[in-house]
Amino acid sequence: MDHIFTDGIGSITVVNGNVRIELRQIVRDPANAGKLTSEPTSTLIMPLSSLKDATIKLANTMEKIQSDEKAKEQMDKQQDDDDALTNL
Q1: Mean pLDDT, rounded, of the chain
Q2: Cβ 14 vs Cβ 48: under 8 Å
């Protein structure tokens, strides 16, 4: 099994009954070392019929994280990364 790290999601498209989710990674801009930018790393492709189940599982995980104070604090510390992701 392969493991893929992602900082965020780029575009999401539906093609021929498959959902294509672009995974992105935050990197330093080679032209400006003080600036962060994102680049695509891979694409997650799943049947459209699986999207609802995946979305529910992600939402349930988010609810568990929000109810766990320690995990919530960790998420709050990641605010800088979140700000970078919103600028994708």
Answers
A1: 86
A2: yes
